[in-house]
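Section 5.1 Outputs to date
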Amino acid sequence: MSKPRLVLASASPARRRMLLAAGIDPEVIISGVDESAADATTPETLCLTLARLKAQAVADLLRQRRPTARNTFVLGCDSVLAFGGQILGKPADADEAVARWRAMRGHAGMLHTGHSVIQMDTGKVAEAVASTLVRFADVTDAEIEAYVATGEPLKVAGAFTIDGIGGPFIESVNGDPGTVVGLSLPLLRRLLVELGTSITALWRNQLTSGT
């Protein structure tokens, strides 16, 4: 049987970097899913629904392009922040990002990341949500404005990162930091096990050959 392949249904460079650092060389196919089309009453349901839609859209594309594709897993992910009774994705503009940070500073929110893995051979799906508590620093107005001016907060759920420019503004995380980046590797390992595969089978050849 051929070596298992992982297809990442995401345009996120942070998710791709995490997989590469973990020894996995994913193929990236952007799903094109309209994130605003999904509706849910809880952050957990919303992020999992979006992750499922992204994975399914890319799986459908693969079936059209490569009907004989074998031993392939499609991973869809999506993140949202639960804060102050709201479900927060990417801010619409700089003004919204500034307003969010003024509300979040000195407080904590729960970052939820949905994961959906589709096994192309069987059509089986394994999915779950990883959640991590994030405590924000009591940053100044000047720091907020400078951060938003970089453009980074406009590209990510919750208007912050821990692996980029926003890292100094995060005091602590209680849970898997990867969840906040957008991909929980321990959860991915468990989902692959559910589908009968070890994450070590996805490692690049140099790791498994001992060279």
